[in-house]
Amino acid sequence: MSDMTNPQLELSQDVLYGIAQLALDQVDGVRPLAPSTRVGEFLTGRRAKGIQIERSGDEVDVALTVAMVYGAEIPKVARRAQTAVREAVASMTGLRVRSVDVFVEAVDVPPAVVAADRAAGTEKPKPVTKPKTAKGRARG
Prior knowledge:
Blueprint: H1 13-25, E1 30-32, H2 39-44, E2 51-56, E3 59-69, H3 74-93, E4 96-108, H4 111-120
Parallel strand pairs: 3-4
Antiparallel strand pairs: 1-3, 2-3
Helix pairs in contact: 1-3
C-alpha cells in the first residue's frame, strides 16, 4: 500500500532522454548528433542520440551534441534549443535544470546548396600539396 501523504515518483533515465529529444525536435535548424559510443553505453544499449543527462537528486544537467542547418544563426538556434529542453524537462518532471550545454559539431549543408556551388564554380577548392623542397643551401 502506498503512503498518500508522501507519494514517491521515480523517473527513468529513458523518460528524461525522451523529453529532451522531443523538445529538441521542435527547434528548427538543429538536430542531435550521435556522439561516439562509450563501452558502457554499447553494452547496455542505453544511449540517446546526442543527448547526455546527469541527474543528482532533483537536479539535472543536460548536454546536447548537435548539427546546425547551413545558414542558421548558430547562437540564436542554440539558445532556442537550450530554452526548449530546459522548459520541457522542468515542466514535465518538476526537476531543476541546472544547465543545458550545446556542443555544435557539424553543419548540415543541403544537397541543393552543394550542387549550386558546383554549378557556379564556387565549390571549395581541394588542398594543394606543396612540392618537397631540397634541404640545404642553394649554390650559385
